[in-house]
Amino acid sequence: MRGKVAIIGAGLIKFGELFDKSYYDLIGMAANACIDSVDKGIDIEKEVEAAWIGTCMGGISAQRDVLSGAGLITALPYLKLKPVTRVENACATGSDAFRNAAFAVASGVYDVAIAVGAEKMREKEPQNFLRYVAGREQVLNRGLIAPSYFAMYANAWAKKYASDEKLRTYMSKVAVKNHHNGSLCPYSHFMFEITEEQASTAPLVSYPFRLFDCCPQTDGAAMVILCKAELAKKYTDSPIYLLGTGQSADVYWIPNRQSLTSALATVMAAKEAYKMAKIEPKDLDFAEVHDCFTFTELLDYEDLGFCKPGEAGKLITEGEVCLGGRLPVNTSGGLKAKGHPIGATGIGQICENWFQLRNEARKRQVDGAEIGLQHNLGGPLAIGCVNIFTNKKP
């Protein structure tokens, strides 16, 4: 897998509340941006052989009870009668759609394929959306929604490694960092900065999370074009290459988990990706990680090997994960500021890797970036997916 697959085009739309656009509009806009990014051009109708579409909330996104691969054909008719697979894997949906497309290309079945992620999450008012996604068949999980799930991990981590006060400081610093980065990213839902005081005193959502600790409900779409590595220079002189990929699934129900201070699915996915890429965390130049809540980013630092367990607060306090630091994290603004349109999130993160590794990230550019990481969590820390990229052909 290492070095067998290249990305030759990537594009996304500005994430946000896009009430005036349909699910299919979002896909079409992202596709146009992606096609335009292919430096030497590409004939999508003739050259793309297969596609993967990542959408998690089909009933919300497209207002249909069943959403299949045919949904992508509706938006992109030039793919008519080609194989299209719809992927759903909770919040790692987009990452997994990309991963499956990459496996198909690496295996030699297809020379050129696309991976698309799209979601319309603002089609229902928040209370109905939460009711839709929070349905549980086990009594122990009744009433739990995303903030309360992740809050349990945050409280457990604070009790083991820090204190409520220190955790509050760390989370506020993450929020400030990601809002700053988001203010520099033209694709972000929230393009405004905040202060630590605003983050620390905002309305309480689910202790210890306050308003600015939580990512927004967002509409969005993103797309990448993949090909065999040996064909990449036909399309661009500046492709990026997939170095490694990993995915892991844990039990869904929190009472059955081994740990409340680590997302073991992320740990295992990262180990697989690093091994395939033949690198270590210290070799990374930047990372786009899953920060649905500010605490989640802190947990990611540890689970992805950026620091030892319990030391995440040091990375954010000393600025190591800020722009200009040793390992900038979420240069796009992350889910916190850029937004989290579930099916599009992972592929949107891959687009940020594309921009960074091609030196096209403008004010948020990481100097000399050569290796980047993309990471998604899914469900209540039950799914982990990690992809690693480089601009140097292995």
Walkthrough of the structure:
By secondary structure, the chain is α/β, with parallel strands linked by helices. It has one domain (5-125, 216-390): Thiolase/Chalcone synthase (Peroxisomal Thiolase, Chain A, domain 1, 3-Layer(aba) Sandwich), CATH 3.40.47.10. Helix content is 36%, strand content 17%. The chain is built from 14 helices and eleven strands. It has helices at 23-36, 44-47, 58-61, 70-75, 93-106, 126-133, 146-161, 164-183, 196-201, 264-277, 294-303, 312-317, 334-337, 342-357, and strands at 5-12, 50-54, 84-87, 112-119, 204-206, 209-210, 220-228, 240-249, 286-288, 371-378, 383-390. The strands form two sheets. Strands 3-2-4-7-1-8-11-10-9 form a nine-stranded mixed β-sheet. A two-stranded antiparallel sheet has the order 5-6. β5 and β6 (209-210) form a beta hairpin. α5 packs across α14 (342-357) and α8 (164-183) crosses α11. The termini are close together.
Topology, element by element:
Elements lengths: L4 E8 L10 H14 L7 H4 L2 E5 L3 H4 L8 H6 L8 E4 L5 H14 L5 E8 L6 H8 L12 H16 L2 H20 L12 H6 L2 E3 L2 E2 L9 E9 L11 E10 L14 H14 L8 E3 L5 H10 L8 H6 L16 H4 L4 H16 L13 E8 L4 E8 L4
Parallel strand pairs: 2-3, 2-4, 9-10
Antiparallel strand pairs: 1-7, 1-8, 4-7, 5-6, 8-11, 10-11
What keywords describe this structure?
394 residues, alpha/beta, Peroxisomal Thiolase, Chain A, domain 1, nine-stranded mixed β-sheet, 14 helices, 11 strands, 36% helix, globular
End-to-end distance: 11 Å
Instruction: Please state the CA-atom Rg, rounded to the nearest Å.
Output: 19 Å
Percent of residues in helical segments? Answer: 25-40%
CATH superfamily: Thiolase/Chalcone synthase
CATH architecture, by name, is 3-Layer(aba) Sandwich
* Helical segment count: 14
Q: Which blocks of ≥5 consecutive residues have pLDDT under 50?
A: none
Instruction: Briefly note the structural class of the backbone.
Output: alpha/beta
Strand content: 15-25%
How many domains? 1
| Largest β-sheet summary | 9 strands, mixed
Report the strand count. Answer: 11
Shape label: globular
Q: Could you please say which CATH topology applies here? A: Peroxisomal Thiolase, Chain A, domain 1
Q: H/E series, N to C?
A: EHHEHHEHEHHHHEEEEHEHHHHEE
Strand order of the largest sheet: 3-2-4-7-1-8-11-10-9
CATH class bucket: Alpha Beta
Average residue pLDDT:
94
